[in-house]
Amino acid sequence: MKPRYAFEFCDVTSLPGGLRECLYEIMEFCNSGLRSFNGRAAEDALSAAREHGLNTIVEVGAGRAPLTTQLVRTKCIDDLRLVPCDLVPNQEVFRTLQQLHPQTVDPIFTPVDLTQPQPLLRKAVIAFVGVMHHIPFHLRVPIISALHRSGSVVIVLEPLARSWRSMFLASLSLFMGLLLPLFYLSRPGNLRRFVWCWLIPLAPWMFVWDGIVSCLRQWTAQEWRDGLRAAGVDLSTVEISSSLHSTRVCWTATDNSRDTAIVGAR
Ligand SMILES: C[S@@+](CC[C@H](N)C(=O)[O-])C[C@H]1O[C@@H](n2cnc3c(N)ncnc32)[C@H](O)[C@@H]1O
Q1: Quick one: which H or E segment has residue 46?
Q2: Could you say which of 6, 58, 180, 189 has the lowest number of CB atoms within 10 Å?
Q3: Domain of 43: which CATH number?
Q4: How confident is the model at residue 208 (pLDDT cuts 50, 70, 90)?
Q5: Phi, psi at 84, each rounded to 5°
Q6: Which of 86, 208, 217 to mutate to test the pocket of ligand 1 (most atoms within 8 A of CB)?
Q7: How far apart are CA 149 and CA 146, in angstroms?
Q8: In this structure, what is the dihedral angle of CA atoms 137, 139, 140, 142, given to the nearest 10 degrees?
Q9: For the residues 117-132, what does the mean pLDDT come to?
């Protein structure tokens, strides 16, 4: 199957806010509720921070910040600084997390675009959960190359893969979208979920489209190896594991402080 780069609804900033929020809630429902994907991502980031003696975990492209949300439920993280950020920061979710955990959660409320220089991504665990497939193919190698000079531990976790089976499973998320209003009944936002999942049921169908496009945008394990090699990463320092429905890539970047920012991505 060839890689393809079509648009995803969750990248369309002109969507009505309530509809956009429903798309992110379906994502959360699938990856934190139905699957324990986000929980495992949080454990992964935490153990990388402990192993490498880093006290900052940056959740890039955080959306509703599922990683930070899982981490604040963990005991003994008072020494950590959790930094959710996104190209389109979810102000409400970030603010609530910060208010509940002011010592630990330190969100960035302004847009953080990975394709632009980002000096903040230094000496931290940088977690990309479901984000790398949003980066256009031609920008991935420059971004990996810049990350590789950041002295950070980089963890890329993708909850989908480029396979027919993963596309089939992604299409089943239609039912998750239709069930969302029932499962999230005790949370604020019932009216918008009722409207966008039942009355005008656009959110479940748009989520299925996003899921299938996300599969087509994924790199295979071999493409990851080729991309990392092209970016100058020593493959012996990289862990790559892929299954029929997910991919994990992790490596420790070198520390070159003269070259900290993500540059050359444009
Ligand atoms: C599929 S969502 C994943 C959200 C969240 N990480 C999760 O797992 O629920 C992808 C996120 O990547 C963000 N994103 C897309 N392009 C980006 C860029 N160039 N820089 C930073 N974030 C970006 C989007 O705004 C979106 O929130």
Answers
A1: helix 37-52
A2: 6
A3: 3.40.50.150
A4: very high
A5: -80, 140
A6: 86
A7: 6
A8: 150
A9: 87
CA of 99 to the centre of ligand 1 (A): 23
| Number of domains the chain contains | 1
Residue 23 in contact with ligand 1 by CB distance below 6 A: no
Alpha carbons 163 and 93: distance in angstroms, whole number: 33
**Band (261; pLDDT cuts 50, 70, 90):** very low
Torsion of CA 40, 123, 153, 231, to 10 degrees: 140
Strand-pair category, 153-158 with 247-252? antiparallel
Q: Are strands 125-129 and 56-60 parallel, antiparallel or unpaired?
A: parallel
Q: Is 114 in the pocket of ligand 1 (CB under 6 A)?
A: yes
Confirm whether 39 is domain-assigned: yes
Please name every residue paired with 238 in a beta bridge, in sequence order, or none if there are none: 251
CB of 54 closer than 6 angstroms to any ligand 1 atom: no
Span from the CA of 63 to the centroid of ligand 1 (angstroms):
6
The per-residue pLDDT for range 169-196, each reduced to its tens digit, is 999 999 999 999 999 999 999 999 999 9
Return the residue whose CA atom lies nearest to atom 16 of ligand 1.
Answer: 134
Question: Of the candidates 116, 115, 84, which has an alpha carbon nearest to the alpha carbon of residue 100?
Answer: 84
